[in-house]
Design brief:
This protein is an alpha/beta fold. Helix content is 36%, strand content 25%. The protein is built from 15 helices and 17 strands. It is elongated. It binds L-homoserine. L-homoserine (HSE) binds at residues 160-162, 197, 202, 301-302. Belongs to the homoserine dehydrogenase family.
Length: 431
């Protein structure tokens, strides 16, 4: 049995899961392979991390990651500390020292992927990152290997479990955003500071990685449009349901002739769309390819053992020599500096959900639709329930396909009308 020695940097939740799998006596890896990754050392700045699992005496434990990164008997470094620094420096040093790298660090890859991929190629080494998107779902492998024969046309998914949990709770139990968030925090799904998840930043990091692998292009991460769920109102979930739609936070990548649309935002999906039935902390990604057509991958997008499963799959890829071959041969990892143009929000074209707050009197609808018509925006359906008491009423509309630039201009004009009583809410729709 051949072995490749692994240095594990970061003994957090996922790190402990990886160590558990690698140290398992009756590991499935032993049954299936004749070359396996073997845990040689663990680094974590917190000495308490040592007590998370039973670490055998032949596995080095250190507070200093450099001890593993400079260790002559370690061939693979697994980076699981997250964040930009010192993760970037650890990975860079590992590559310079001739070690392959496995990481789950989506933020680092989204922001500095090109530079790190270039560094890996310079040193003839690989970076594997299956665990960076979709936890245990092998979506990177699917895009990189399984769908290689396809021109990828679109990637559309629920890639953040925290926000999907919150939206599911709001939808099914009719609780407000703040109550659903508090519950997610209590259950450990949301961080104390939930910004990265609820503002769509985590999903935009993952989208950057998926689009890069799927479309084989490089682009500026900052050009990705992202909007989170913190301003989602329960009433929009109700009206959407009445219109036949479910509200989800989607990460969407679509390749056009000359530009790519990359956007993360709350989205209305028809109830019968497969992503509408993805509930709780689950993730799912729909991929449309020129040969395969529509495909969907579904599973646990986070959590200790699902994410560890993806990390160990990468380790096996390195141990078997597959990661090195793929990394060297695929243009996707070339770190080429040529950037592909990304569409800005005004160029998006979707159907829209609009919720106006209006005074309930004759002629209001005509005033609003008059302005929408002027900007080529056609109405598909309207809901206005009878006001229970005197005052403002919500007026909800669904439009046909429209250009967002036109919609923005129309909304500015509509907002000036004296019959409009509050900020107008709009949500994008995917059919
Ligand atoms: N915070 C992420 C989520 C999990 O809620 O999906 C790690 O990627």
């Amino acid at each position: 049995m051949k072995a490749l020695h692994v240095g594990l940097v970061g003994m957090g939740t996922v790190g402990a899961g990886v160590a558990k799998i690698l140290l398992e006596k009756n590991s499935p890896l032993l049954e299936k392979l004749d070359c396996i990754p073997v845990l040689k050392g663990i680094a974590d700045s917190n000495p308490e991390a040592k007590n998370k699992i039973n670490i055998p005496s032949n596995v080095l434990f250190t507070a200093d990651a450099r001890e593993l990164v400079n260790h002559p008997d370690i061939q693979i470094i697994v980076e699981l500390i997250g964040g930009l620094h010192p993760a970037k420096e650890i990975i860079t040093l590992a590559l310079e020292n001739g070690k392959d790298v496995v990481t789950a660090n989506k933020m680092l890859l989204a922001l500095h992927g090109s530079e790190l991929f270039q560094k890996a190629r310079q040193h003839g080494k690989s970076i594997s990152f299956e665990a960076s998107v979709g936890g245990g779902i092998p979506v990177i492998a699917a895009l990189r290997d399984g769908f290689i024969a396809n021109r990828i046309e679109s990637i559309c998914g629920i890639v953040n479990g925290t926000t999907n949990y919150i939206l599911t709770k709001m939808t099914k139990e009719q609780v407000t955003y703040s109550d659903a968030l508090a519950e997610a925090q209590k259950l450990g799904y949301a961080e104390k500071d939930p910004t990265m998840d609820v503002e769509g930043i985590d999903a935009s990091h993952k989208l950057a990685i998926l689009a890069r692998i799927g479309f084989g292009v490089d682009f500026d991460y900052n050009s990705i449009y992202h909007e989170g769920i913190s301003t989602v109102d329960l009433s929009d979930i109700w009206y959407a349901r009445e219109l036949g739609y479910t509200l989800k936070l989607l990460a969407i990548a679509k390749k056009g002739e000359n530009t790519i649309e990359l956007r993360v935002h709350p989205t209305l999906l028809p109830h019968e769309h497969p992503l509408s039935s993805v509930h709780g902390v689950f993730n799912a990604v729909c991929i449309t390819g020129s040969a395969v057509g529509d495909a969907m991958l579904y599973g646990r997008g986070a959590g200790q053992m699902p994410t560890a499963s993806a990390v160990v799959a990468d380790l096996v890829d390195v141990a078997l020599g597959r990661a090195g071959i793929t990394f060297a041969a695929m243009k996707t990892f070339s770190g080429c500096s040529e950037r592909f143009p990304i569409a800005n929000a005004l160029q998006f074209k979707t159907c829209y959900y609009l919720r106006f707050s209006v005074v309930d009197k004759p002629g209001v609808l005509a005033k609003i639709t008059g302005i929408l018509g002027k900007y080529e925006i056609s109405i598909a359906s309207v809901i206005q329930h009878k006001a229970r008491e005197a005052g403002n009423v919500p007026l909800v509309m669904m439009t046909h396909l429209a250009e967002e630039g036109n919609l923005q201009k129309a909304l500015v004009e509509i907002q000036q009308l004296d019959v409009i009583k509050d900020h107008t809410k709009f949500l994008r729709v995917e059919e």
